[in-house]
């Protein structure tokens, strides 16, 4: 049976995703959130309209992904926090793993001595793994991640495709 090869470049070249992701990687977090557009501009209901055809959707998405990219990153962060707060077991496992590794690291390679027993760093890391892996799998991180990807995709692509470009920008690219 022959495998089907999907040319990813043909799919991503229409939306110019390759160049867009290079810009995201080169920016720091502080400069990314310094470019946040005001909420009144991001949620301008007067500019919401149904696109006439798929070409207009592509034009709007291409423009809005570049223009509102910091706002879309903030939407992703807010949805991530919401997903973690709605899944308290996953949040507990993350805190347990990070706190356990921090606590074991604070020992500096010395053994943990309790009144009746002694535990080496290797034993402590093993106990942390034995506890965190099953709890982490029970807390459904994959379902949370897939929900986060879907919710962010629908929110961002919905906003980007229905939000019309400003009037001054729409006429600046047309030839007179």
Q: How would you describe the overall organization of this protein?
A:
The chain contains 10 helices and 2 strands. The protein starts with 7 loop residues before the first helix and ends with a helix. The chain is elongated. With about 180 residues, it is an all-alpha fold. The chain has a two-stranded antiparallel ribbon with strand order 1-2. The chain has helices at about 10, 15-25, 30-35, 40, 55-65, 70-85, 90-105, 120-140, 140-160, 165-170; strands at about 110-115, 120. α5 (about 55-65) crosses α9 (about 140-160) and α6 (about 70-85) runs antiparallel to α9 (about 140-160).
List keywords for this structure.
176 residues, mainly alpha, two-stranded antiparallel ribbon, 10 helices, 2 strands
Describe the structure concisely.
The protein has 176 residues and is mostly helical. It is 69% helix and 2% strand.
């Amino acid at each position: 049976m022959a495998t089907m090869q999907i040319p990813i470049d043909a799919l991503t070249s229409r939306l110019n995703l390759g160049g867009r992701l290079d810009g995201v990687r080169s920016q720091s977090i502080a400069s990314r959130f310094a470019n946040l557009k005001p909420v009144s501009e991001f949620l301008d209901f007067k500019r919401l309209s149904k696109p006439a055809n798929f070409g207009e959707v592509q034009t709007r998405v291409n423009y809005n992904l570049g223009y509102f990219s910091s706002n879309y990153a903030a939407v992703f962060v807010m949805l991530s926090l919401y997903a973690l707060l709605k899944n308290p077991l996953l949040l507990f496992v993350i805190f347990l793993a990070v706190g356990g590794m921090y606590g074991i690291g604070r020992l500096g390679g010395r053994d943990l001595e309790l009144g009746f027993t002694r535990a080496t760093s290797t034993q402590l890391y093993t106990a942390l793994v034995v506890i965190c892996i099953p709890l982490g799998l029970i807390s459904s991180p994959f379902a949370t991640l897939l929900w986060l990807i879907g919710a962010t995709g629908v929110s961002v692509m919905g906003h980007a495709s229905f939000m019309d470009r400003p009037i001054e920008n729409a006429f600046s690219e047309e030839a007179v």
